[in-house]
């Protein structure tokens, strides 16, 4: 009986630690989602890119093609970046809202900073709630 109880406790601990390991880090989830959306933009995959938009964005752009056209026109460095890297991030309200910097070298040679606002949805998923893009100051070189 003791052996059975010990095995039962060991199984319960393993399951609980596995669940804790699967709990997603909000910043990591945000970065993964941003990267997947950028890949979708690079492939001109409007369906996938649009799937990461929060309900508020979808309310403003209820059609994926209108959304995609807006991104192409107003967010060219995000739509087709040369190179990009994640900068600073900030988590608010225990991951309910994430702000993530993405440092972008545009294909035109200009540097940009995109600041993503990502919100946790009622189902626990994360969606992009908005992006502000600003040009970086001119590089002084190395």
Question: What features would you describe in this structure?
Answer:
The chain has helices spanning 2-22, 26-42, 46-51, 55-60, 64-74, 76-79, and strands spanning 81-92, 97-106, 111-120, 126-135. It has 142 residues and is of the alpha+beta class. It has a 4-stranded antiparallel β-sheet. Residues 3-22 have low confidence and may be disordered.
The dominant shape is globular
Let me know the average pLDDT. Answer: 85
State the distance separating the first and last CA atoms. 70 Å
Coarse structural class: alpha+beta
- Major beta sheet, specifics? 4 strands, antiparallel
Number of helices: 6
Helix fraction bin: 40-55%
Order of helices and strands: HHHHHHEEEE
Unreliable runs: 3-22
Q: How much strand?
A: 25-35%
Work out the radius of gyration. 20 Å
Q: What's the β-strand tally?
A: 4
Read across the widest sheet, the strand sequence of neighbours is 1-2-3-4
Provide a quick synopsis of the model.
The protein has 142 residues and is an alpha+beta fold. It has helices at residues 2-22, 26-42, 46-51, 55-60, 64-74, 76-79, and strands at residues 81-92, 97-106, 111-120, 126-135.
């Amino acid at each position: 009986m003791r052996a059975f109880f010990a095995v039962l406790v060991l199984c319960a601990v393993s399951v609980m630690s596995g669940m804790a390991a699967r709990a997603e880090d909000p910043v990591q989830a945000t970065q993964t989602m941003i990267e997947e959306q950028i890949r979708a933009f690079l492939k001109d995959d409007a369906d996938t890119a649009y799937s990461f938009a929060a309900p508020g964005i979808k309310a403003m752009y209820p059609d994926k093609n209108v959304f995609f056209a807006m991104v192409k026109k107003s967010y060219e460095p995000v739509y087709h970046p040369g190179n990009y890297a994640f900068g600073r991030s900030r988590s608010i309200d225990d991951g309910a809202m994430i702000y993530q910097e993405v440092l972008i070298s545009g294909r035109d040679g200009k540097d940009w900073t995109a600041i993503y606002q990502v919100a946790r949805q009622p189902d626990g998923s994360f969606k992009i709630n908005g992006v502000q893009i600003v040009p970086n100051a001119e590089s002084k070189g190395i």
